Amino acid sequence: xxxxxxxxxxxxxxxxxxxxxxxxxxxxxxxxxxxxxxxxxxxxxxxxxxxxxxxxxxxxxxxxxxxxxxxxxxxxxxxxxxxxxxxxxxxxxxxxxxxxxxxxxxxxxxxxxxxxxxxxxxxxxxxxxxxxxxxxxxxxxxxxxxxxxxxxxxxxxxxxxxxxxxxxxxxxxxxxxxxxxxxxxxxxxxxxxxxxxxxxxxxxxxxxxxxxxxxxxxxxxxxxxxxxxxxxxxxxxxxxxxxxxxxxxxxxxxxxxxxxxxxxxxxxxxxxxxxxxxxxxxxxxxxxxxxxxxxxxxxxxxxxxxxxxxxxxxxxx
Length: 317
Known about the structure:
Blueprint: H1 10-43, E1 52-59, H2 62-74, H3 84-90, E2 95-101, H4 104-118, E3 126-127, E4 132-133, E5 146-156, E6 159-171, H5 172-180, H6 196-229, E7 246-254, E8 258-263, E9 268-272, H7 273-280, E10 297-304, E11 309-313
Parallel strand pairs: 2-6
Antiparallel strand pairs: 1-2, 3-5, 4-5, 5-6, 7-8, 7-10, 8-9, 10-11
Helix pairs in contact: 1-2, 1-3, 1-4
Organism: Rhodococcus spelaei
InterPro entries: GTP_Pyrophosphokinase, NT_sf, RelA_SpoT, S1_domain
Protein name: S1 RNA-binding domain-containing protein
């Protein structure tokens, strides 16, 4: 005798939820990204802004949401939802943003600033729950990241709606670990189940990448020390005098402390802030990117030392 299949209303509830709230979620996503980017601006003031990036974001696909709800019901983690609101309450990762950091110290500085901002009485973005620090306390699998659930208010015709936005903060190597270990194939509900070999290799890879992250921190600290010197010291005149012939160099990258340029011989050199200050006639601190843009061609004098190749602008503008 054939058994009658129970109607699965999960997909219907998910569709109702998305129809009701997807526009508000999109607004919350933009607000949260703007919030995170302004935090990154604050953390990296006068530094290389590329060290923090909050551009990777998404709203979970409807089918994936329905599948996750069904799986959690089957595993006994939640009761079968009966309303769209129950779907929303059951999941914290419907809206997600990934913040990628070049090094662990950038991650530490950013997460400290994030917690400081979200606990400030003047900030409208709050923490829904205490963050999970899987960097300090990695998962058994080796997974490392910092997870925070933000509450972002969105104005709707029915009043303010508090939207949960999951933020994952990772170093580039912590993010790469997930790709290299094919983590997405072994997540709950996926086709493959990790065996001891996979778990052991994944943990060892995580430890190795963590060591590389530590070394990257050391290199970044040394680079910061060297580039900080570009904004101080002499007036930017080459040590071998001002009678040296000039060459043209094309700006390929610019930032607060220095610019990078390529000369006619294909060699890349540094244009330090102190040299730009001299040319523009300023004794105050400046941002190099206020005066030089990518693609600009600048007449420079060349200075080569044991540690760097410098291009000192003769004129700007």
